[in-house]
Amino acid sequence: MRRTPCMATAMVIYLYFIVYGMVVIIMSQHSSHLQLQWGATEGQVLQAISGVGIGKIIGPSFAGFLSDRFGRRLSVLTGLVMVMIFLGGLLVSPNWQVGFALALFFGLANAVGDTGNYPTLMEIFPKVAGSANVLVKAAISLGQLALPLVVTGVAAAGIAWGAPMIALIVILAVLFAIQLRAPFPDYRALAAAQRAELDAAAQAAERAAAPAARSCVGIDGAALVLYGFCATAMFWLAQNTLPMLGVHLAGMSESAGRSLVSSYSIGSFIGVFVTATLVARFVRPVTILSVNPVVAGLAYVGLLLSTNPGAFHACAFVIGFSAAGGLFQLTVVVLAEFFPLRKGVVTSMVGLASGAAAFALPYVSGLLVGDASNAVSSYRQVLGMGVGVAVAAALLGLFVRYRHQHILGSARAVTPPRGAPRAACRGAAPPVDPGQRSAARDRRCLLPVARPTGSRRRSREASSRRARTLVPS
């Protein structure tokens, strides 16, 4: 990624997502402490955590509109404040019902923040929007890897269990102060330029007597929203059911079953960087959408057919690599390519699908497993659902790829052409031509010279015009 006037803004966004990766699992990491604080059971803590999914369903109904109407900065800052309120409220919450309300509030914060952060990254790095958004997944994974180590260290040192939450609140407050003054891209100007490119391509197709295709919310938007649902479902099934799948289908112990999640997480972390490199240098993001579900589907079939623990580890790694290696983030990027004027809205649409998957998949899986009286058969049905979701994602990915090629042609993305100036950042100095910059340096090396008065300047201009009239043509 090249350095841009808004690079500091992007770095703060990535730091936020590292913190977000910690916050999103903080309730499960402190489940035992919350049980004592609330006087609740483990099941009630899980019920409280489920409020995050409901918040992610409600939030997109208004968050995207606010981002596109009032700007990215407001959405980013509002999301930071809401996460701080969630962490502070969790420390003093009296019961699990309040915890549920706070989790729902955090789901809303996630929706609001995403509709500001994801579009901002796409607008700061328009030529590598796919890689920029995929790196968000790496930042989240880093936070999720770090928090368990932090919690273990805090417990070993005898420090209060709420200390990590207070530290995260302080970090978020610092990020808020930075983003309050940091430059943000002029998203309206960039969106207008991208829309102009699409219109120019359509006019060129008309002049060539070719039918001009345009993106359609009912077709392209619906397909990608459904794809976002399937993308979330593919990795949710793996990260939440792998331990019990290993126990019941591969004869693994509980500790060995939990280690499958480690294989999945390693695959996810590596997949993020491989995907980012591919979309930056070799392939379009839409190609990844059509290929990765096929790979994930084959891995689910491997889990369904095998009973070998080694094969389970390999399949867990492949699912993490293909399904959790930035697929959801690329869905946002491709949807924004179809609808460049509504980046905030399209992010909220995919977020809505993700929230629906986070809410629906636990419910359906619970119906399939039931009381686990026939666990082997029940978990095979869960794997069958994983295969079905992967097949649906692959078919949707192929359809989206066809529409992308038909509407946007062979262009890598709807971005400014190479060599064109980048979108100016609000609050940043406008780009300066290298020649002007050199001349400015030269002028700084000279002593101050008195500027001519207005009458003298007009006299010189009149003399110059008279001299030009005397030059023979």
Account of the 3D structure:
The structure is a single chain. This protein has helices spanning 7-23, 26-29, 31-38, 42-49, 51-58, 60-70, 72-92, 96-124, 129-157, 163-181, 187-207, 217-249, 254-281, 285-305, 309-323, 327-338, 343-369, 375-408, 434-444, 454-470; strands at 184-185, 425-426. It is an all-alpha fold and 473 residues long. Helix 1 runs antiparallel to helix 10, helix 3 packs across helix 4 and helix 12 (217-249) runs parallel beside helix 17 (343-369). It is globular and about 65 Å long. The two termini are 52 Å apart. The model is unreliable at 410-422, 428-452 and 466-473 (pLDDT under 50).
- Low-pLDDT sequence parts: 410-422, 428-452, 466-473
Gyration radius over CA = 27 Å
- Percent of residues in beta strands? under 5%
Question: What's the oligomerization state?
Answer: single chain
Coarse shape: globular
Count of distinct strands: 2
Tell me the series of helices and strands, N- to C-terminal.
HHHHHHHHHHEHHHHHHHHEHH
Strand order of the largest sheet: 1-2
Distance between the termini: 52 Å
Structural class, from secondary structure content? mainly alpha
Mean pLDDT: 80
Q: Estimate the helix proportion, in percent.
A: over 70%
Total DSSP helices: 20
What composes the largest sheet?
Answer: 2 strands, antiparallel
